[in-house]
What we know:
By secondary structure, the chain is α+β, with helices and mostly antiparallel strands. It has two domains: 3-160, no CATH class; 198-323, Nuclear Transport Factor 2, Chain: A (Roll). 56% of the residues lie in helices and 20% in strands. Keywords: Cell membrane, Membrane, Transmembrane, Transmembrane helix. It is a multi-pass membrane protein. One of its GO terms (cellular component) is plasma membrane.
Amino acid sequence: MTAGTLEDQDAAASAQGSDRPASWPARAGAFAVDVLVGLAVLAALGVGAWSVWAEPDADGLWWGYVVAGAVVLAAMVANRLFLPTVTGWTLGRAVFGIQVRRADGSPPGVLRLTLRELAHLLDTAAVGLGWLWPLWERRGRTFADLLARTEVRTAKRPARDVRRDCALVLVAATLVCVAATGLSYLGVYRPQRAAETAYQQISEQGPRIVEQLLSYHKDTLQEDFSRAQALTTDEYREELIAQQQVAQRAGVTDNEYFAVASAVLSATPHDAAMLVALQGQRGSNPQDLKFITATVRAEFVRDGNGEWKVDKLTVLKQPLMNVAGQ
């Protein structure tokens, strides 16, 4: 672009009666409304989508983030590229009373506006210098304006109350950001924290529950059996009662287990599974005590009161007994 061309454009602009170049603060304010607000919403939606990406139960939420992001992006494109060709304004420029025009004062078309938006990458790539160029360039142009042959000039605001429209957009953007963050917490972080809490609880409580389920003494038999039944779900209780009845018919003696090792296999806020290695003793006469070792898989379910109940108990290694003194 030669100096003569610039002079010709100045003359053409004067002939069209163009207003003075827009101030840099007005341009920055319009850009914040038109672009930065949308980018903030897209960032919130992007973080939300990324946080639920690997969650198997959050596919619907992930697609919700994607669709919402596509809608926001489409709105930004429409506001920056298509709305100016219809009304002469973007929302932000209407609020601050500025317009993008060609050098001769005529309104730019969609293609020129698209070129200008893409050329803003050059403004950014030059360590942001292009965005500051209007502060000393005599016609207030960025690098993008120079390439697209456009200018940003002051203009009379439209009669419509655009400030109210801008306020509504800002409120909506804030609500979307809050919703995106809240849904991410409810959909991912809260379940994760609940699963971590369940893991800790079952690590501590599981071995003790299995001990109480399998241990009993002949002097407090019915009390011990009732306590064990209270530690199970309705589905497993019938099976446990049947096992207790078999033990009674075989002749009751003391049977006491201690968990010596355990490992949580899985844990969710609603159910869990773990392996428990047990040692114990059977009999009440010190001369006839039998020492027991066994390994079981215990499956737990949290009931409506938040308490863990045994839903299934599978013996993986049958009890081995050694008589004391042998």
